[in-house]
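Let us work through a complete example step by step.
Step 1: write down the sequence.
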Amino acid sequence: MNAGTQQNALNGSRSILKLKMVWCITFFACNLLIRAKKLGPAYLWQAEFVQIFNRRIQIKLRILKILEYSKTLILL
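Step 2: predict the structure and record it as tokens.
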């Protein structure tokens, strides 16, 4: 494995870690908003925003997993 391939693998790992951290923060915020949602309709739009944001992160995580898998296949 050459230096360029190692750097690409490292960058991919870092981006997955960043997305996982963002997902954890979003998950925590979503739980808080679900509790706030019980207080009244004023909080509904916030909960919907977090759900949309959460879906986008999940899609990005899936794409990164596919990219990592394809990198593994290429290295084999």
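Step 3: interpret the result. The mean pLDDT is 69.
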